[in-house]
Amino acid sequence: MPGDLDLSPPEVPEPTLLESLLRYGLFLGAIFQLICILAVIIPSSKSSHEQEAEPHDLRTGDPARKPKGPVQQVRQKIKKESKKKR
């Protein structure tokens, strides 16, 4: 019985060109994804300081409020029209 066992490695066909391209393309895609994830996790110091500085520079104290003049004028017109109808 020990002489009947074939212990040689199985025959594996050589990978085709398409299989090779697919394999290396998947590796490149995985590396690209890792680089993108690292870019999100570790932002560069220059861009983060610029983004933080700009909003604070634009805000100079209280936010600008719209004047209430046009709103009051509309109310006055409504009151005048209601008085005319009487």
Concise account of the structure shown:
The protein is an all-alpha fold and 86 residues long.
Write the layout of secondary structure elements.
Blueprint: H1 17-41, H2 45-58, H3 69-85
Task: Describe, in plain words, how this protein is organized in 3D.
The model has no long low-confidence stretch (mean pLDDT 77). The protein has a domain at 16-57. The longest helix is centred in the middle third of the chain and has 25 residues, at 17-41. It is an all-alpha fold and 86 residues long. Helices cover 65% and strands 0% of the residues. It is built from three helices and no strands. The radius of gyration is 37 Å and the shape is rod-shaped.
Keywords:
mainly alpha; 3 helices; transmembrane helix
Radius of gyration (Å): 37 Å
Number of strands: 0
Which residues sit in consecutive blocks of at least 5 with pLDDT less than 50?
none
Average predicted local confidence, pLDDT: 77
Helix count, DSSP H or I runs of 4 or more residues: 3
Strand content: under 5%
User: SSE order in H/E notation?
Assistant: HHH
- Biggest beta sheet attributes: none
Content-based structural category? mainly alpha
> Helix amount, in percent?
55-70%
Cα distance spanning the termini: 119 Å
Shape: rod-shaped
Membrane topology: Single-pass membrane protein
Keywords: Membrane, Transmembrane, Transmembrane helix
Transmembrane segments: 20-42
Subcellular location: Membrane
